[in-house]
């Protein structure tokens, strides 16, 4: 399974409750695409949200985000970790 970091923009002013609801929406259907969202970070001031996941492909990550109503603007593979 590969690791991916995806970026969402345009979420300026997102509240903790909205952020948690969006993350839970992803997690509720992640298994349908073989994705596992490990962690998410958000910055309401800049509107950026970052999600770290394990998945069979970047396309699988995007399908989950689209179905949850918040497609990623960018998805990057993370081939190296320490």
Automatic annotation (TrEMBL):
Domain of life, source organism: Bacteria
Pfam families: SCO4226-like
Database matches in InterPro entries: SCO4226, SCO4226-like
NCBIfam families assigned: Ni_bind_SCO4226 (NF033706)
Record's protein name: DUF4242 domain-containing protein
Organism whose genome encodes this protein: Streptomyces venezuelae
């Amino acid at each position: 399974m590969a690791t991916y970091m995806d970026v969402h923009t345009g979420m300026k002013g997102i509240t903790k409750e909205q952020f948690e609801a969006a993350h839970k929406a992803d997690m509720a259907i992640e298994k349908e695409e073989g994705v596992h969202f490990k962690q998410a970070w958000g910055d309401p001031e800049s509107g950026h949200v970052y999600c770290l996941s394990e998945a069979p492909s970047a396309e699988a990550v995007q399908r989950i985000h689209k179905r949850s109503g918040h497609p990623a603007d960018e998805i990057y593979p993370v081939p190296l970790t320490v």
